[in-house]
Specification:
Number of strands of chain A: 33
Structural class of chain B: alpha/beta
Largest interface: A-B, 96 and 70 residues
Oligomer: heterodimer
Radius of gyration of chain B: 17 Å
Shape of chain A: globular
Number of helices of chain B: 5
Helix content of chain B: 25-40%
Largest sheet of chain B: 7 strands, mixed
Radius of gyration of chain A: 26 Å
Number of helices of chain A: 4
């Protein structure tokens, strides 16, 4: 750590005389985020007070750029971390630091220290952060990106990855090594130069090293753990006018882990999608089968710890609070077979049906099933677990949602959106609740309206109802938000579990907040009850316990 | 902690010339499948608006849909170009093109799947909107979107062309 800082400092000093000849001055940029919460106990909703009574998470990124050189740090504080964050994030210190030299003209880009990276769709390697959820698996090592000629890009990464934070960055045990190549065939092959069809193939190889040992299966079977696990992926993106498509195949050699029950079966994944339009109807279809592709730099870890890759769920990420926090779907990491189709249609402005401002509609169907597999028995069963019969669907439903959205602006001052969703959600596949095991059948209705009440003022409301016989029964949510552009807002949200089979649990969760925004600075204060739920950002989810109390949040970029 | 101070001092000692934020260079892809380098953003000396958004972000979509009502007028009056940067990840990236097409957006839309450009622009959450003057310097930015914010943006735009 100390050494790296000295290197960064030296690099900065060494660069000064060279760069000072450049007329471009150095620039400091950064951001700050602080979140403070206080807690009050509430036995009815299960809210508890942690020993420190309050939680405080904060971080600040500070970057310096001068010409081709940049360097930066992130200072982080968890004093103690707010509820719902990884509780072992503790103390204060530097969680991220890097120096980078990037020369576009020569096609060379070198990063030393921490960096985020993704190869292709991320099925083999994705180092990323979702700070709001406490997820961060930044790589720590070296990265070189070479672009010898424009249509060829080669990335090489070598490093460890962030696992934890205790007065500073703590990396996991494993070593990650990877290479990725992306080609632009239209730039490489003269006969494709003027083609409307654009083809961009890519190839990746990623390998991890972790010290091994033996495991014992079925009492007497002694198996050696592989210390090196390699995985590769190849695929291509296609484009023809506004039609886009992509296909990707990946494979991973035997990788016994806590996720797969320490079986030696190889992993495989196949994904493809097509999007385009026929006249005014736009569509996207996506299909994926992933089998045993969990890939971590530490074979014994689970959930959010030390993932090297990311297997994206292809179901729709919910926008509305009830579905998003009660039944969000995350990929079944050991394998699933899934499909999504979406249609978008806009009725033109000024037409009889479309109204003065036009009307937008969309229809989504998404589903995910278990894999089509046969369990193996005897010795093979102990070593390999199962075999997959096809790329198709298995018997057990993970999730299915069908939704219809319609959105229309009625006048200069009023617009509305409505949505209906039919949801089938298997809580055994995605364990979002302990109250019910099996398939939840739910219908969700949403009406969102927006009135412009005066110049720069508007009132937005949401009415949501989720009806189900299973789990916690029916829910309703009302949201009202009033804004005075560009600086102020107040909002109130009430969630009411009016259909809970246990009458004592038919609770209102009322939460109010207000805030002030000035350019890139934002301060908000909130108070109230929040139920336990799953909070997702960009498709990544974390369980947040019920809480009751104050919250103050501040973010700023500069 | 000591190291942090040393580093911060170093940074600031080097940045005696610190000035307004410029646009860092990151390679992104547009909806036509072409590689676009953000360092090359150029609008012949006219202003540029950069909006970070995602298909799962309601306020972002409200913002960009509302701007469409004014975009033609803004372009006539100021020559402005709007670049919408989607931070959708591999889960939702395939939804970007059909959503944009069906919404009739006339913006240039770029895909920042790994959020590298968002990070370089210090974006913490979306929507986050930047206004660049004719020299590519950030002169105004706004995090969040509320109905009516376009009026402030329009006032800032007019300041740049007068």
């Amino acid at each position: 750590m100390k050494r790296l800082l000295i290197v960064l400092g030296l690099a900065g000093y060494l660069c000064t005389p060279v760069i000072s000849q450049n007329t471009e001055p150095g620039v400091v940029t950064g951001n700050v985020s602080m979140l403070w919460q206080s807690y009050q106990a509430d036995a009815l909703i299960g809210a508890v007070v942690p020993p420190s009574k309050t939680g405080f998470n904060a971080y600040s990124n500070l970057n310096y750029t001068m010409g081709n050189f940049s360097a930066g740090i992130r200072y982080e504080a968890y004093l103690n971390s707010v509820l719902g964050f990884p509780g072992r994030f503790k103390g204060t210190g530097i969680g991220y630091r890097y120096a980078r030299w990037s020369d576009r003209e020569k096609g060379v880009d070198v990063t030393v220290g921490n960096f985020y990276e993704q190869f292709g769709a991320g099925t083999l390697l994705r180092a990323y952060e979702e700070r709001n959820l406490g997820l961060d698996n930044a790589l720590d090592g070296f990265r070189i990106i070479l672009r010898p000629i424009d249509p060829i890009q080669i990335k090489v990464v070598y490093g460890k990855q962030r696992l934890d934070f205790n007065d500073g960055l703590i990396n996991g045990e494993g070593i990650i090594r990877g290479v990725n190549t992306e080609l632009d065939l239209n730039g490489l092959l003269p006969f494709l130069a003027d083609s409307k069809l654009k083809i961009k193939p890519d190839f990746s190889f990623v390998s991890k090293f972790q010290e091994g040992g033996n495991i014992i299966q079925e009492d007497t079977l002694i198996l050696t753990l592989p210390q090196n696990v390699g995985a590769w992926e190849y695929g291509s993106k296609f484009q023809y006018g506004m039609w886009r498509g992509g296909i990707e195949y990946s494979k991973k050699i035997n990788d016994p882990s806590a996720d797969n029950g320490y079986i030696y079966k190889e992993g495989e994944a196949l994904m493809y999608f097509l999007s385009g339009n026929v006249k005014k109807l736009n569509f996207v279809f996506q299909r994926a089968t992933t089998d045993n592709m969990s890939f971590r730099s530490d074979r014994d870890l689970l959930l959010f710890d030390a993932p090297i890759n990311n297997i994206p769920s292809i179901t729709r990420a919910h926008t509305y609070n009830l579905a998003a926090t009660l039944y969000p779907y995350a990929t079944v990491i050991n394998g699933e077979s899934s499909f999504r189709g979406e249609l978008y249609y806009s009725i033109a402005r000024g037409s009889k049906l479309g109204g003065k401002y036009g009307t937008k509609m969309s229809l989504t169907f998404a589903t995910s099933y278990s894999l089509d597999t046969t369990n193996l028995s005897g010795l093979d069963g102990a070593i390999y677990g199962y075999e997959r019969n096809s790329w198709g669907f298995g018997d057990s439903l993970n999730v299915q949602d069908i939704s219809f959205d319609i959105e229309r602006k009625f006048s200069k001052n009023f617009k509305a959106k409505a949505m209906y969703m039919n949801l089938q959600f298997n809580t055994l596949a995605t364990p979002v609740t302990t109250d019910f095991k099996g398939i939840v059948f739910a219908d969700l209705f949403v009406l969102e309206t927006q009135f412009k009440t005066a110049k720069r003022q508007s009132l937005r409301t949401e009415f949501q109802v989720l009806l189900t016989e299973q789990d916690k029964g029916d829910w309703a949510t009302v949201v009202a938000e009033y804004t005075w552009s560009p600086h102020w807002f107040v909002s109130v949200i009430d969630q009411y579990n009016f259909g809970n089979p246990d009458e004592a649990k038919r609770v209102h969760y009322l939460y109010g907040s207000a805030g002030y925004i000035n350019g890139a600075h934002r301060l908000s204060v909130g108070y109230g009850k929040r139920r336990e739920g799953i909070f997702c950002v960009g498709g990544v989810c974390r369980t947040v316990p019920a809480s009751n109390g104050f919250e103050v949040a501040f973010t700023s970029s500069f | 902690m000591k190291h942090l101070y040393i580093f911060t001092l170093l940074v600031f000692s080097l940045s005696f010339n610190a000035s307004a934020q410029t646009i860092p260079s990151v390679q992104l892809e547009n909806l036509a499948g072409e590689n676009i380098n953000t360092g090359d953003f150029d609008n012949d000396g006219a202003p540029i608006i950069i909006c970070f958004w995602a298909t799962w972000c309601s306020p972002c979509k409200r913002e960009l849909n509302n701007y469409m009502d004014f975009y033609a007028d803004w372009q006539d009056e100021t020559g402005v170009k709007l670049i919408a940067i989607s931070i959708d990840d591999s889960r939702s990236i395939s939804r970007v093109a059909p959503y944009v097409m069906s919404s009739g957006w006339e913006y240039e839309v770029l895909l920042d799947t790994g959020k590298e450009f968002a990070r370089a622009m210090q974006v913490i959450n979306v929507p986050h909107t930047f206004l660049l003057d004719g020299n590519g310097k950030v002169v105004w930015s706004h995090n969040n979107y509320a109905e009516g914010d376009e009026e402030e943006l329009y006032e800032e735009l007019l300041k740049l062309v007068k």
